[in-house]
Amino acid sequence: MAIKRNKNNARRSPYAAILVILAGLLVSGGGYAAANAVVSAKSETPYSAQDIKTGNQLFLANCASCHGRNAEGTKAAPSLIGVGAASVDFQVSTGRMPGAASGPQLMDKPAQFTEQQIKQLAAYVASLAPGPAVPTSNLDPTAGNSTRGGELFRINCAMCHNAVGAGGALTEGKWAASLREASPKEIYEAMLTGPQNMPVFNDANLTPKDKQDIISYLTYVQNNPSAGGDELANLGPVAEGLFAWIFMLGGIVAITIWLGAKSN
After folding, report:
1. Is position 167 within any domain?
2. Largest Cα–Cα distance of the chain, in whole Å?
3. Residues 146 and 182 in one domain
4. Which of 1, 90, 143, 167 is least buried, going by the fewest C-beta atoms within 10 A?
5. Do 120 and 151 belong to one domain?
């Protein structure tokens, strides 16, 4: 009984509540510090303070009118906080940004900034919040498996981009871009960031090795044109069947009519 009383007295002690509060603060504070360290490690970028400063100036002069002075977004354009350097590098290097005109989809065109300026814009946006970095590895198509990449591409991408990356029409005036001239970095960044109508394929959906295999397949398609004659823009069996119906069968019918008329 004396032992039980001692335990009860310890629980009723005013110091017990203080010890519980201190323990809670230590646990929560330690967890926050650990999480903050992880976020800080992820947000480290290869960009200098000067790159970020110059990128901010370029952003204010060329992008803030649509995306907001702090990249917070407006009614005309989305927020860029957290999109990462990879998204900026893709959109600006392919000429999609700055946009030429409003429409269902931004068109690619010659880039309006130099490589250094694109890097500086990416540095500024990357400094706002953690996001996908510009890829530097898994870009060598010769190191990938093109056969496996073709299977992955047909499963995940062919319904929009066509089985050989020729592109195709989508709804509401949108389209899936042709990949016949896309560079390995552009392909990787597109999978990583999901520009416009494209979904994001993060490392949980497609691993970096999967992405490299897809790049290997698309590079093989780019470097090996069809050996069977005119590719007909690689639009698939519908276009090929239409060509055969109109020109080949039409030609046979025309010849038949001509021969019949000549015999008469």
Report:
1. yes
2. 128
3. yes
4. 1
5. no
Asked whether residue 32 is domain-assigned, the answer is: no
CB atoms near residue 110 (< 10 Å): 6
Angle of the 14-42 helix axis to the 2-12 helix axis, nearest 10: 60
Please indicate, yes or no, if residue 12 is contained in any of the structural domains.
no
Q: Residue 204: inside a domain, yes or no?
A: yes
Asked if 153 and 222 sit in the same domain, the reply is yes
Region of 34 (left: φ > 0; alpha: ψ -120 to 50; beta: rest) is alpha
pTM above 0.85, yes or no: no
| Count of the separate structural domains present in the chain | 2
Q: Which two tokens stand for residue 204?
A: 């949980």
Which domain does 148 fall in, by range? 141-231
* Cα torsion 82, 94, 109, 176: sign: negative
Domain at 184, CATH number: 1.10.760.10
Q: Which two tokens stand for residue 152?
A: 């992955």
Q: Is the dihedral of CA 32, 33, 34, 35 positive or negative?
A: positive
